[in-house]
Amino acid sequence: MLLTVDVGNSQTVLATFDGERRIGSWRVTTAARATADELRMVWRGLLRDTEVSGVAACSTVPALLPSLRQLLDSLEVPVTLIGPGVRTGVPLHVDNPREVGADRVVTALAAHELFGRGPGGHARPVVVVDFGTSTNVDAVGPDGQFLGGALAPGVEVSLDALASRAAQLRSVELTCPPHAIGKNTVAALQSGLVLGFAGLVDGLVTRIAAELVAQFGTAPVVVATGGLAPVVVDSCASIGEQEPDLTVHGLRLAFSRHQAQASR
Questions:
Q1: For residue 10, how many C-alpha atoms fall within 13 Å in the half-sphere facing its CB?
Q2: Tens digit of pLDDT for each residue in 28-66?
């Protein structure tokens, strides 16, 4: 069983795979200062008696990397930690490839492999909208190349900023309001956050899709992923597909590619 671990700024997603089939999936709060022993306890508690034959991981939390590396180094199974210098097979068509987070790279890999073919089998671009701590709108070319994208604050980050900096505003449940015109503070915040971010995403996707059509002559498929996708995605007119855990699928694919290269 392959264990994949996506360490994000707010949440860590763990998933197990039997071949291409996802067996289990868990989301836990990321503890940026956790020790290797604490990470081991969390993993064991979730996996229970699952026999792990390999691990693929990535992290966007620099403070947690030493503990993560220590834990991975202690395992007696093949391990792939995605980072600079680790080949994933994703060409990075950006100014500075080392700036691109490992999570964005493996998410692009999964987006191309899972959604980069149209109904007739023809290659097509993909736009990935990742709703997490930040809202990432990334473009993937028809050959699987990462082309860059747009980064915006996440929905929860924006809510926290409002609640902490505006004396008369507070945290509210992130849910889609029935109307855009809020009749009270809670409804107004929900409208601005949920419907507002839907408008932000639709606007960015429209512009990015137009650039992809101009470059490749083919309209992209737009895929939503990330822990906060269920909050916003139904209000977005531009999103056609959903895969909640695209990043862990990318880790699975990257592990397979890396192990195949290592065995040559």
A1: 14
A2: 999 999 999 999 999 999 998 889 999 999 999 999 999
